[in-house]
Structure formats: C-alpha cells, structure tokens
Amino acid sequence: xxxxxxxxxxxxxxxxxxxxxxxxxxxxxxxxxxxxxxxxxxxxxxxxxxxxxxxxxxxxxxxxxxxxxxxxxxxxxxxxxxxxxxxxxxxxxxxxxxxxxxxxxxxxxxxxxxxxxxxxxxxxxxxxxxxxxxxxxxxxxxxxxxxxxxxxxxxxxxxxxxxxxxxxxxxxxxxxxxxxxxxxxxxxxxxxxxxxxxxxxxxxxxxxxxxxxxxxxxxxxxxxxxxxxxxxxxxxxxxxxxxxxxxxxxxxxxxxxxxxxxxxxxxxxxxxxxxxxxxxxxxxxxxxxxxxxxxxxxxxxxxxxxxxxxxxxxxxxxxxxxxxxxxxxxxxxxxxxxxxxxxxxxxxxxxxxxxxxxxxxxxxxxxxxxxxxxxxxxxxxxxxxxxxxxxxxxxxxxxxxxxxxxxxxxxxxxxxxxxxxxxxxxxxxxxxxxxxxxxxxxxxxxxxxxxxxxxxxxxxxxxxxxxxxxxxxxxxxxxxxxxxxxxxxxxxxxxxxxxxxxxxxxxxxxxxxxxxxxxxxxxxxxxxxxxxxxxxxxxxxxxxxxxxxxxxxxxxxxx
Length: 559
Ligand code: HEM
Hints:
Layout: H1 48-55, H2 57-62, H3 66-72, H4 84-103, E1 116-117, H5 119-132, H6 140-145, E2 148-150, E3 164-166, H7 174-189, H8 191-206, H9 209-231, H10 233-236, H11 239-250, E4 266-267, H12 281-285, H13 300-309, H14 325-335, H15 345-349, H16 356-368, H17 371-378, H18 381-386, H19 392-428, H20 447-459, H21 512-518, H22 543-555
Parallel strand pairs: 1-4
Antiparallel strand pairs: 2-3
The protein binds protoporphyrin IX containing FE.
C-alpha cells in the first residue's frame, strides 16, 4: 500500500513542509490578484512618458497615433522602478502599448502588423518581464490581475464584480472591461478556495478526514461562485464586439503568418544588438520572438484546482488512463505516488505566461498534493457500493465529487461560451467590412513588383530581390481566441528591407488578394471561417477537441 508523506521531521530532507501563500506572491484575500488594487499611475515623474500615452490611450489608438508616439518615447531605465506594484503596472502598460503598436495598424494608410517593437518598448518590457519572471507579451496577469480598480471602497464586498472597473482597455468599450472583469472577479471569489487547498493538503498529513471534508466544501463553494460568474459574461460582453473588436489586440506573435508575422516579432535593442551583418538574415530570423497571446488559460487558478483535485490532462488527442475508480485505486497500489507525469503540453506551456511565483506554486503544489489519493484510499470498494451515508469517508467522497462536478460544469459552460463568442461569430462574419488591406511596404516596393515577387516566391523558395513575400491563394484561415492559429503555412524566406524607422526584416505578409480570397473583409485576426474548417487552438490544436478533452478528463476523475 502506498505511504502518505509522513509528518515533518526537521532533519528529514523529504519532510512535508506546508506551502505558504506569501512565498508564492499569492494573496490570502485575493488569491492570484494582488491584495491592494493595482497602481493607477507610477508616481515617479520619470515614467511620465509612459503614463502620458496611457492617459489618452484609447484616443491615440483610435486616431492611429500610437506607433508615432511610441517611436518617439525615450528608452526608460527600469531600475528606477521601486516596488513590485510598480513593476506590475509597468508590465501592464507596456503590454498595452506593445500590442497597440504591433496590431494597431492604420488600414487606410495600408499599414500592416509590425514585425518589430522599437527599443523604447522592448528594452524596458523585457527587463520588467524578467523581474516578474513572465514572458514579455500580453497575458492574463496584465489584463485581468494587474488592471482593476475598486469603485466603492466602502462596499459590502469591495471585490464584487459590480464594484470593479478596469484601468485600461484597447477598445474603450464596456464589453472589453467586462470581459476582463469576469476573470478578475472569479480570481477574487476563489481566494478562499486556494486557502482551502492548503487546508486539504495539510489534512492529508494529519490524516484528518473531517478537516479534509470541510476543506473540500470550501473548494466547492469557490467553484460554485466561479460557475455563477462565468455565465455573467453574457450580460455585458457582446460576442460580436468581443470577436471582431477586442480579440485582435490580444493576439500574440506565434503562428501568425496569415496576420503578417510569419517569424514573430523582433524586440529591437534586445535581440538585434550584436547582429553581425544585415546580410545574414538567417541569423536575424532566429532572433524573432514567438509568443502566444493573452488567454484566461493563463490563469493559475484552474490549474491549481486541477492539481489539487488530481485532475490530469494528457496531450490533446491522447486521453489519459483515469477510467474507473477501481482501476485508479489499483494503479495507486501498484505505482504508489510515482506515476510518470504526462501532461497536456499546451496547459504546461501556459505556465510561462504566469508570474514566476504563481508558476512555482503550481509546481510545488503538484509535488506535495495527494488529496485525490487520500480520498481514493479512504473509500473501500464495499463502502462505495453500499454507500453508507453519514460515514465520514462517504461525506468526504461526496464533497470531493461535488468539486469534480463543479469543475466539469465550469468547463461545460466555458465550451458553450467559446461556441457563442468564437465559433458562431467566425461562422457569421463581420457586419461591417473593413477597408481592403495592402502591403505595408507599398511605399517601398511598387505593388506590381510585389505581385511579381509573390509569383516568383511561390515558384521557388528563394526570396525575390527587394520584395516582400506572401501568397495570394493561401488557404482560408480558421480562427482561434485569442490567437489566430490555423493551417501551418509553408513559410517563404523573408526579404530584408530597410525601412525608414528600423532595420528589422520586413516579414512576409499575404497580399490583398489573399485576404479577399479568405473573407474579403481585411481583418486578419478575427475572421470568418470557411465551411468545414476547425477552430484551432494556440498550440495548433483543434480548440474544441482540446476543451472537450479537458472537460472529459475532469468528469473521469470522479470517485
Ligand atoms: C468570452 C469569453 C471566453 C472565451 C471566448 C474563451 C475562449 C477560450 C479558448 C478558445 C480556449 C482554448 C485555449 C486558448 O486558446 O487559450 C480557452 C481556454 C481556457 N479558458 Fe477561456 N474563454 C473565455 C473566458 C474564460 C474565462 C472567464 C475563464 C476563467 C477564468 C476562462 C478560462 C479558461 C481556461 C482555464 C482555459 C484552459 C482550458 C481549461 O482549463 O479548461 N476562459 N478559453
């Protein structure tokens, strides 16, 4: 029979040491949100060049001033940031400016996505991200964890969703605020569930079923709140606005060939400093960064509940072994606690988009948590069959199963909203056609030569001299939130073009014709899908297949 970790002994290196939330930058009251509301401004006037842009961010984005203003911004020294709250604010506002710079193109001027970030953004952003131990790209923490304010400090429940506001949005719409706030409010409401996880872990050590049952009830309470809040998204976030107006700014730069970024984005002043020669484009191309964009899949919350409850997720398409209870118990007897971890790589990868402390919490929790095993071993087969209501073991099992049912219900509801917010929108198409899109480099390369270059590029793998590459019969691009990632395209080599403002390689962008052949609407991040296409996930997987598998794995964990 497998042994549970023994009570701690000071000299035993394998001793159980209880996890303490403060060691992982987790708030006892607000969970993965900071305890105090995020800063609305960095008070040091040195950072005014950033704050002044944020003062009129929506207006500048609407008027297409962002790129010009960001280019003019000085490169600020992040060593002047003093507190963690300042680093978090810096990360959030740099994320908004960076994504506005990359995706905030002026289509009337035939601009396309930018394949570089100027040093004024990239140098401080990379440095702040390093401090926070998170990828320098927009993420759940930037828009949901560090981007909220309390409206009425004296409210009965200050963290109630109806008492919260956002600090920043791209669109300036209430829909976008609400989209972020649903996640923010879920995080706050589930703080007691995170505390309860630690109680449950401790009760395994104490072999205390009563404490375990109580902790499981508290986890269930949080999950019930999360379920209630999740469906409130329908109240104030219009699926049309979400799909066609918001999500394009949340996209990252991975699998974004069709959006004009086949190689990702070059962080100027960070990754190009020692470029040996501009002729060695192959060398430079490796320095382009590829990151997924923002998604609530980057919240540590659901992963923490998964780990706590022993819900395992396997690579998409390879459903795991968790089948019957007796099988699970048999495996536990045979393998003890040393089952090899086989994880869903997408979910694991999303941890790089979480702050370092939160990522480490998930790792350490996985190493210490044996809640499911405890419940499983406490319930004999006879007891499970006879169902002695009132027995401590049975109540514990019921409390555990209630948590599983609520996790499954959450994922069912989530699948429904993905259907309404993404799939239905992608199938319908936009109401308002965007202006046609042409190559950003049309001022550099005459359109006719561009087209000839395209034709040459498609007949060979060598880049045409001085021209950008693309394909005017690229396949239709099914769509994914928040990153559009679809068919993998055969990437042509980029052509180095020295632009007026930077020396980054101009990336291959599909031509106008290629967009009209997909949906004719010009918007490359939110787009109509062709009949029969699947909506693909960030990791290149079929989103629905991924989400349904994650849901089914949850249901299979019931004891
Ligand atoms: C309009 C609202 C939403 C849409 C359209 C949406 C869409 C998606 C999509 C397409 C995925 C697949 C992977 C990816 O691309 O990142 C995903 C994953 C995920 N989303 Fe959402 N989402 C929404 C709201 C939320 C909210 C409010 C939460 C809760 C905090 C949430 C939590 C998750 C989690 C945890 C995953 C990973 C899969 C899982 O653990 O079940 N989502 N979401």
